[in-house]
Specification:
This protein is α/β, with parallel strands linked by helices and 278 residues long. It has 11 helices and 10 strands. 38% of the residues lie in helices and 22% in strands. The structure holds adenosine-5'-diphosphate and magnesium ion.
């Protein structure tokens, strides 16, 4: 039977300096279409785990599997890894390298040997998917942070990765930018892309994730259904996090489950019982 999990971590550990473990013995299996929120305080190991999953850093112990096979660090293996797994860095400045938007987005396909006319088509589609065709010829350095994040994401989407890793993608975006990001991620997850997002934003995770995974000092403290894991105040306090505001409000008021996970759901949930005058 073919193992269809696009990516798995098995007993993965990593230390930047001897004895200082940034990631400890992490097991993570990620099905296609998963929306996994990696939650944790600053320094919990989120970014390091994403770097390991992306192949940018080499595990000290354990292994990463891609579609059931051990990921290889040969030149060809790394090329495949890069194609299959895209990582959006927290700061798009670290990711965008070419002078113009279209050159930057075309970089991956051209490096992968795609012919120029085909690469141009792919770039056009990726820019359309990110709702930024109007930025195609703009110099990257002139763009706003939100625009740069969209360009960086277009540069990942153009490779049609099976797995998308996102490091604090909502940081620095305005509410409209966050909404657009969420819609785009929903579309990708529905199409089967597995998404793993590092964040300390429990409210975003509660609304967005199909599964949450709480990291503490490099290890996994808890993992499962968002509504269940994020209601565990004691565990969250231990991890220097707090329950999501919506969940806390619903629990305080009391009422039927499932509890609302978004503002529109909250309005629907609260109205019929007149629990709260809206
Ligand atoms: N480049 C680095 N060199 C040395 N230590 C690092 C480096 N990057 C991160 N660390 C350490 O690794 C641990 C995990 O950090 P990180 O993965 O960045 O956590 P998070 O993304 O959850 O804030 C922290 O103790 C941090 O200080
Ligand atoms: Mg980080």
């Amino acid at each position: 039977m073919v193992n269809r999990l696009p990516i798995e971590a098995r007993g993965v550990s990593y230390a930047y300096a001897p004895g200082h473990w940034a990631v400890r013995n992490v097991d993570l299996d990620v099905p296609a279409g998963a929306r996994i929120a990696l939650l944790g305080a600053n320094g919990a190991g989120k970014s390091t785990l994403l770097l390991l999953l992306s192949g940018a850093e080499h595990v000290c112990h354990g292994e990463i599997l891609l579609h059931g096979s051990s990921a290889e660090r040969s030149r060809e293996g790394l090329r495949r890894w890069r194609r299959e797994v895209g990582l959006l860095l927290q700061d798009p400045e670290d990711q965008l390298l070419a002078p113009t938007v279209e050159q930057d987005v075309a970089f991956g396909p051209l490096r992968g040997g795609v012919e120029e006319p085909r690469a141009r088509q792919l770039v056009e589609r990726a820019l359309a998917d990110m709702a930024i065709p109007h930025l195609a010829t703009r110099p990257v350095h002139e763009l706003s942070l939100g625009e740069k994040k969209r360009v960086a994401l277009a540069g990942l989407l153009v490779q049609a990765p099976a797995v998308l890793l996102l490091d604090e993608p909502a940081a620095g975006l305005d509410p409209g930018g966050v909404r657009a990001l969420r819609e785009m991620l929903d579309t990708l997850a529905r199409a089967g892309t597995a998404i793993i997002m590092a964040t300390h934003d429990v409210d975003f995770a509660y609304e967005w994730a199909s599964e949450v995974c709480v990291l503490f000092q490099g290890g996994i403290l808890a993992r499962g259904e968002p509504a269940e894991i994020l209601a565990d105040r004691e565990m969250l306090t231990h991890a220097s996090l707090e329950p999501p505001l919506l969940l806390e409000a619903a629990l305080a008021v009391g009422g039927p489950s499932p509890f609302p996970r978004s503002r529109p759901e909250f309005r629907e949930w609260a109205r019929p019982t007149r629990r709260i005058a809206l």
